[in-house]
Amino acid sequence: MARSVRRKLRQIERGRIHSAEERVQHILDERTESLASRRKDGAALVEVLPRALVCGSGRERFAIPIESVAEVLPPQKYLRVPDGPLALVGLFGRSGRVVSVIDLALALGIEPTSAEKDHHFVLLRRDHPHVALRVERAHAVADIHLLTGEEATGFRTDAVTGYARMHGAADDPSDTLALLDIERLLRPFLSPSPVPGV
């Protein structure tokens, strides 16, 4: 008799645990549904914007995808590269690595407008070779929205993949940013690998 009572008590106890688990699951399901419906209602209002480093070279402003940027450095001393491409202006050392300096304006064929001593260096997130872009000014990291149609006009080159404006900026054509494709920009400066298949 005592065994059957204990067995019944265990079954009742298991039933309570099961009921508690069911209650917890039910609450979680209700919360999930509530959050999902809020997300659907607010989906039209929430827009995920890309982020970019906005910088200037010559009379143009450019947007470099933030995932391509490792660091923005103040003006650096560098060694000039003799007999190299015009845009490859020099080399400097950083954390035991040699970093090639490419002037953004010269790489894009536009005329610089400020003195060389004031330039910022945008250290790119790359394994090899290490490269920094010399820009006249690194302005800010900003959310940007892409332009389409007639708005999407401005400076043209292979390395420019589109146009954008900083989120919240006025619809002024002078605020248009040229979106840079870093790999396309660097392609003329990267020598092919001497090892076949690499």
From TrEMBL:
Pfam families: CheW. SMART domains: CheW (SM00260). Gene3D superfamilies: CheA-289, Domain 4, SH3 Domains. InterPro entries: CheW, CheW-like_dom_sf, CheW-lke_dom. Residues 49-191 form the CheW-like domain. This is Chemotaxis protein CheW. It comes from Microvirga arabica.
